[in-house]
Amino acid sequence: MIQATSLGERGASAAFDRMADTYDVTFTESAIGRAQRSVVWNSLKKAFRPGDRILDLNCGTGEDALFLAKRGISVLGCDASVRMIQVAERRKALEAPDASLEFRLLRNEEVDALSSAIAFDGVLSNFSGLNCVADPSQVARKLAELLKPGAVALICISTRFCLWEIAWHGGRANFTKAFRRLRGSALARLNEITVPIWYPTIARMRESFSPWFRLRSTRAVGLFVPPSYVESWARKHRTVLARLEAMDRIFSAWPVLRAVGDHVLLEFERTC
């Protein structure tokens, strides 16, 4: 599932405006959504501490930002969708009114509009936000200006090669969908709007971030746990899904396997 963000073209934010009111029901609160997000949250708990100031890019309805804020972390959440930001602000008022949490309408590509006077201790871009940027090195350069030396950047992107996708769609003889990521880019239809998606390799992401960041670790998100479009199957097989989650915890950081899940979580460190 692609989290709300700027999808290359400004007009794509309209698609997420339409999705905003149902996004949490269809993904955030889904069995697969929770299973995949738990992997990211485990990394967030290790990377960020109470008192840190964190930038949450393509924050969507604020699920990750709220998770961090409730742990005593100061968060600025940004998204390109007006409606997503409105939903996030409503959730803050209901769930964490006193938290150090702010939301702002801002595209990933325009992150340099933020003031660098007070540097951030880390940044998160969850669920494919940077798959929607043609040149991630431009975002990496701008982030480097906003982060302290040693700051952690957790970037979760859709992979180039997804075993689940190939097996699921290939088994249904839909080979166009089965191998769509291998081309490196694709056009997606979101609420009747066509938007471009890019699928960079891990090597490409390392190269894009390397002038300012070093890659510390790589972990699959959704290796055995399936992609979000398999939710109807997952709801009927809760016991199986729990076992798949356990397998993800064991194998998601293994070489080769960490690159073939639905997403990959890249942990970068800002160099001096």
Question: What can you see in these coordinates?
Answer:
The protein has helices at residues 13-28, 31-47, 63-69, 82-95, 136-144, 163-170, 175-178, 202-209, 231-236, 238-251, and strands at residues 53-57, 74-79, 101-105, 120-125, 147-158, 185-190, 193-198, 213-221, 263-270. With 272 residues, the protein is an alpha/beta fold. The protein has a single domain, classed as Rossmann fold, CATH 3.40.50. The protein has a seven-stranded mixed β-sheet with strand order 3-2-1-4-5-9-8, with helices on both faces. It has a two-stranded antiparallel sheet with strand order 6-7. Helix 5 runs parallel beside helix 8. The chain starts with 12 loop residues before the first helix and ends with a strand. 44% of the residues are buried.
Biggest sheet features: 7 strands, mixed
CATH class: Alpha Beta
Q: What value does the average pLDDT take?
A: 93
Sum up the overall morphology in one term. globular
Which strand-content bin applies to the residues?
Answer: 15-25%
Strand order of the largest sheet: 3-2-1-4-5-9-8
Straight-line N-to-C gap: 34 Å
Based on CA atoms alone, the radius of gyration comes out at 17 Å
